[in-house]
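Model it.
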Amino acid sequence: MSNKAKARVTDVAVFSALESADRRWLRKTARPMSYPIGATIQEAGNIDRRFFVLVDGMVRLDDGIRARDFGPGVAFGDARSSGEELPVTATALSDVRTFVVPSLAMAWLAQHYPHIGVWLQKHPNEVPLAG
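Modeled.
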């Protein structure tokens, strides 16, 4: 994956108000990941201390009751480093690209930037991408 895809982590609207140093830190912390069609990105019931934002492709999020399909901008995973079991299984419906932020980094951002904490509570599965 190119540096262009990695740089997109700071294009997410919720991260736009970060101070310059924190934007640089987030770009260094986030890791681009690619998954082929059919791959299980995360599985419900597991503990996984990563927070994913879908950059390209389609994923299905299934909580065992309802399955919903999402495109770029959806977020899923552990955003608070809670260590709780994941509520949904995420499966790649196409080749997908994500960036992954460690849940400890997301917890730090939520603590230092109240709007991120509020956003995580109100919109846990929606991440508006800028531009």
